[in-house]
Amino acid sequence: MAELEASRRDKLQKLIELGVDPWGGRFDDHIPIGTIRDRENEIEVVPSGDCETGRPPEQHGPKVRAAGRIVLQRRAGKLIFIDIQDWTGRIQLFLGKNQVGERNWEIAQCFDLGDLIGVDGELKRTKTGELTIFAEDLHFLTKSLETPPAKHKGLVDPELRYRMRYLDLIHTEGVRERFLKRTKIVGSIRRTLAAEGYVEAEGPTLHAIAGGAAARPFVTHHNALDIDLYLRIALELHLKRLLVGGMERVFELGRVYRNEGISPRHNPEFTMLEAYQAYGDYRTMMDLTEKLIVEAIGASGQPLRLPWGESEIDFSPPFARKSYDEVFREHTGTDAADVEAVKAHANKIGLETAGKHPDVVKNEVFEAEVERRLKGPVFVLDYPASICPLTKRKAADPAVAERFELFIEGMEVANAYTELNDPDLQEELFGKQLEGLSEEDSMAKMDRDFIRALRHGMPPAGGLGVGIDRLVMLLTGTQTIREVILFPLLRPEAE
Q: How far apart are CA 405 and CA 388, in angstroms?
């Protein structure tokens, strides 16, 4: 390896001696490789008229300029075949010493895998029919001093791939395409919300009180104010303040942080969408969620039936809608309204029930036994009110909260409420939730300014939260969340 790196350093020095800047510079007017490949039909074939010699017919193609990274080289005397790639595709270059001239040929002797180069030439096909740029002029754009991983046995360790994502994007098939698809999904979500009249807001990421969810926060310290602050665990409470302020349709797409476990479906730092609509309710948000997902699939260029492992997910609207009690009974065989039966079932599967509210026991059974069986997409509606402190109760049954969660392949992807806007009830419910919590718990302090905001009058509203990383997993057929987050959290690299 040291010899290979020394060879690259020698070529770096040779470039400098040739008067070539090995770090390149501005390279205008180059065309994305994908666009160049689309110009194949512009190649004209002119018969040579000499069948006896077997000369191939002449070709005339468009003049093109490309830039990309060298991913393959094959040398044969005074000929070099090179494959370069950019983020739109890959194409072959043909370099002949007579065609590019002496100086360009000397520059080409300094090429290594991983180098970034530019080329001007004519787009034609080789004798074997391969679409190729026949180089006429070369431009050195950046020297790569590190040897890339071996093609078949290099970048295979997942942790190494995540740690060196830059190499993963270059060398692992499908990775760059997956992240580009993610940008299309996120872009579609923003466009759909804008078309529905929502405006995007940016709330603070440092909070004096961690609220809006039951989760353990990351704690930091502000030196100038000499106070502890928390990285936000949710976007909710500040967006609701904007509803009070008259911003009637508002959303934020941003990072949230929860100091909790890491798994194929959890990363401590993740991307959330939260959206709030004045004068709507949870059914309003159900329709919005469905629209966001269906339009994101279309924007990423995919059909509504997508592969997932050995099966597939059918995203054709409308998504199924079932009540919490209905799916509870369907997947446990127990009547959710029968407190003793639910408690017995919980004991049977090894859950502790002593001293717990019946709804807490019920929900622990739901999380343990029901969620993983919900293939979906299915909206599960009407949760026990006692576990939903930010949610409006049903007028006909105050024990039920107007809340839904969207489940797909056993994962909760979205969560929505008819938002509670009664300040006195909200304060009472916060108080009950805080009873017995330790100081380290995120909900151990009440956000009294939020209660004060509600007292100024928050309109009735629907609110929605969507886990973007999980949604991207499902829309790209990816089984682990680390494959859809560019830089997932890792332990520090050993020295």
A: 12
